[in-house]
Design brief:
661 residues, alpha+beta, Butyryl-CoA Dehydrogenase, subunit A, domain 2, six-stranded mixed sheet, three-stranded antiparallel sheet, 54% helix, 8% strand, globular, binds flavin-adenine dinucleotide, oxidoreductase, FAD binding, flavoprotein, nucleotide-binding
């Protein structure tokens, strides 16, 4: 049963909900990993809806940037007071969720505090450092951010310019931004809100540069909030979206911090200027791997937001006719609309399933690393690099299709889809620009193929074992596993093609770097296919593990949409394997699976359990009463406070009057 049905709802939406074949709460339990976690989300939404001071003071699209930052801060402060009674304070998921519910997706002063400030202290700080700062940060006595990117350098961390030079005589590090390009640029919450930051700076001891390391740095006075002497800090200005966040710039001029402020769990500088290396050269990058490992689920949820809006709206929007000329048809009944939306629903489910899997893998890696075992770091770095790139790109595409699927109203901020799009596609850039990260995964794929070429296939990890197989025929009695083999064929042949291109260029005498650059488009294609294969196989495994038979049946239908769509989408890579008859068969299976999923479309998006407050969309309202609320929304626009604006009295009216003479 669909748990969203309520009296007074738009009858078209109720009809959709009645046609659903499964219980949406049970599906939510599968999406979020357990009945308890799904129920906690419902309980938190419900509790928040009953607290007047946590409601939006007005719709976000009607707020100026200053109002957004003020509203985010107001709510953050109230939340800090109320959180102990509302959520499990030890749960990162609940903390993120309640902020999303109450403040929304446009950013707020604590967005980075939870995800990029506290985790490095907790994982890279010594026990004493944790004792000193962790409690203060968790109680929010201080607000932090993560300052790594610079005006001139973001992707290439080796070229960062900020320095932290050890001064033995005073036992301090001296921070400097030697050039304009070395100014820290972009960190969220740095501009106006944070008073502390993790700063990534080149560690210099005895004139030797040991590369980027993390330091705890106080930026502002804890009483006055004024920048401390030696610090230049401010906001970088409005962005495409995410304007509730104050992304900032930061410069240092001979700014001194105690030796104890370098995070020293892994690398250390001793009082006499000795440098102790970390157990793995890239351990300082693990804060980024943590965030990347969470991005598939986060982005899957952004896509879920947009689809909830577009699918619900498509069920109440009537336009044109099919057979019955007496009543316009729901636009959701058009095959083109289904083709536009349903594969994205499948992707959103796939991203969330695989996102929770990578979070689990990261948590396991963290335990291993704390126990001195860093052997899994390369695998997870490669996996999360590819995953963040593919998922953010496809999420952006899916959200934009969802906007267009809403016609003209999709273009209005009342749909809120443009904000979701703007925030989500930031993910193509932050935490590693997508091409750069695809090329990181490509290094790993090339190395794997070189192992095969050197007769060491048995050393390949499970995620790349398929690179050594030799599939040349597919039995098209197609079940998910045959589709997986088709995808493996595509990913494998592209990985070999790209590697061989690189090797050929090398053998022709080209430098490694030039050969890599000339092969890089092919290499990124290999990385995408490898990642899409991983997403598909995780989806198949996940569906296989579902116990509730009604839920399993719908998920198999959704999986069929996914695998047929994905294989059609990569047609060019499987031309050597599949005949045109086989491609036609798959195409037809896709069309059949769109029809099969149609009665469950609304229930599938309802199962994401995104409340109206969180959705902030007039088009996507749970009750489907869109038109009357669109009219209300337009009337509440500040431009309509007065009938005659100054723009008219001051300029247009005089112009028209003058023209009359
Ligand atoms: C509904 C939604 C719910 C919630 C959503 C809420 C909010 C979301 C909204 C808004 C977002 C808010 C905040 C966004 C926060 C964004 C924060 C940031 O962006 S912080 C800055 C991030 N910066 C980057 O990611 C920089 C990218 N660059 C790099 O990581 C590195 O420079 C590089 C590309 C990896 C290269 O590094 P380097 O030059 O040092 O190394 P090499 O390329 O030479 O490689 C050498 C060797 O090392 C391996 N390696 C590299 N990194 C790692 C690693 N992390 N772990 C393990 N190994 C690593 C690499 O593979 C090479 O291996 P080899 O081939 O030699 O074996
Ligand atoms: C919303 C948002 C929030 C952010 N928050 C933070 C934060 O809190 N803290 C922080 O430190 N940073 C933050 N950043 C910065 C972000 O991490 C960087 O912008 C990102 O890592 C990309 O780096 P860049 O800007 O230097 O891009 P560039 O590297 O300049 O990319 C420009 C182009 O060059 C290409 N390119 C670069 N290198 C290569 C290569 N080796 N091979 C092929 N192509 C290449 C890229 O693919 C891209 O097309 C944020 C950014 C955004 C948009």
């Amino acid at each position: 049963m669909n748990q969203s049905i309520k009296p007074g709802d738009n009858p078209d939406l109720t009809e959709e909900r009645l046609s659903g074949t499964f219980d949406t709460n049970s599906m939510a339990a599968v999406i979020y990993g357990s009945d308890k976690l799904a129920q906690r989300r419902r309980e938190i939404s419900e509790a928040v809806s009953r607290i007047p001071e946590l409601q939006d003071s007005k719709p976000c699209p009607f707020m100026t940037r200053e109002e957004k930052i003020l509203e985010g801060s107001r709510k953050s402060a109230i939340l800090n007071r109320l959180l102990p009674g509302l959520i499990d304070l030890d749960s990162f998921e609940e903390t993120v969720f309640i902020h999303q519910e109450v403040i929304g997706i446009e950013g707020h002063p604590l967005a980075l505090h939870e995800s990029l400030f506290i985790p490095p202290i907790a994982t890279q700080g010594t026990d004493e450092q944790q004792k000193k700062w962790l409690g203060r940060a968790q109680r929010r006595e201080i607000i932090g951010c993560y300052a790594q990117t610079e005006l001139g350098h973001g992707s290439n961390l080796r070229a960062l310019e900020t320095t932290a030079t050890f001064d033995i005589s005073s036992q301090e590090f001296i921070l400097n931004s030697p050039t304009i390009t070395s100014l820290k640029w972009w960190p969220g919450a740095l501009g106006k809100s944070a008073n502390w930051s993790i700063v990534i700076a080149n560690l210099i001891v005895h004139d030797k540069n040991h590369g980027p390391h993390p330091f705890m740095v106080q930026l502002r006075d804890e009483k006055s909030h004024e920048p401390l002497p030696g610090i230049t800090v401010g906001d970088i200005g409005p962005k495409m979206a995410f304007n509730g966040a104050d992304n900032g710039f930061l410069g240092f001029e001979n700014y001194r911090i105690p030796r104890e402020n370098m995070l020293m769990r892994h690398s250390k500088v001793t009082p006499d200027g000795g440098y102790i290396r970390p157990p793995h050269a890239k351990i300082g990058y693990s804060g980024m791997v943590r965030v990347r490992s969470r991005m598939a689920a986060e982005q899957g949820l952004f896509l879920a937001h947009a689809l909830t809006i577009a699918v619900r709206y498509s069920a109440i929007r009537r336009q044109g006719y099919l057979e019955d000329r007496s009543r316009e048809v729901k636009v959701l009944d058009y095959q083109t609309q289904q083709h536009r939306l349903f594969p994205s629903i499948a992707r959103a489910y796939a991203f969330i399933f695989c996102g929770f899997e990578t979070i689990r893998l990261y948590d396991q890696l963290l335990i291993d690393v704390q126990n001195g075992n860093t052997s899994g770091m390369a695998d997870l770095h490669a996996l999360t690099s590819g995953l963040k790139s593919v998922v953010t790109h496809q999420t952006g595409e899916g959200i934009e299709q969802a906007r267009m699927a809403c016609g003209g109203h999709g273009y209005s901020m009342a749909s809120y889809i443009s904000e979701i799009y703007g925030v989500a596609i930031g993910g193509c850039t932050y935490e590693g620009e997508n091409m750069v990260m695809l090329l990181q995964l490509a290094r790993y794929l090339v190395k794997s193929i070189e192992m095969i070429q050197n007769g060491k296939s048995k050393n390949l990890g499970p995620m790349v074992a398929y690179l050594a197989a030799n599939e040349s025929e597919i039995d098209l009695n197609l079940g998910p596993n045959e589709y997986l083999k088709v995808f493996q064929y595509a990913a494998r042949s592209q990985a070999w093609r790209a590697t061989e291109k690189f090797q050929k260029l090398r053998n022709s005498g080209m430098s490694k770097e030039q050969a890599w650059n000339q092969a890089s488009v092919e290499l990124t294609r290999a990385s995408r296919l490898h990642t899409r294969l991983y997403i598909m196989s995780t989806f198949i495994n996940h569906v296989g593990s579902v116990v509730d038979q009604k839920i399993k049946k719908v998920l198999i239908d959704l999986l069929n949409v996914h695998i047929t769509y994905e294989v059609m989408d990569i047609g060019i890579y499987v031309q050597g394997l599949l005949s045109s008859d086989q491609m036609d068969l798959i195409r037809n299976q896709l069309y059949v699976s769109l029809e099969t999923i149609r009665p469950n479309a609304v229930s599938l998006v309802d199962s994401f359990q995104i409340s109206d407050m969180q959705l902030r969309s007039v088009l996507g309202r749970r009750d489907g009463n869109v038109y009357e609320n669109l009219f209300k929304w337009a009337k509440s626009c500040p431009l309509n406070d007065k009938d005659v604006l100054e723009s008219v009295t001051k300029y247009l009216k005089p112009m028209m009057d003058k023209s009359k003479l």
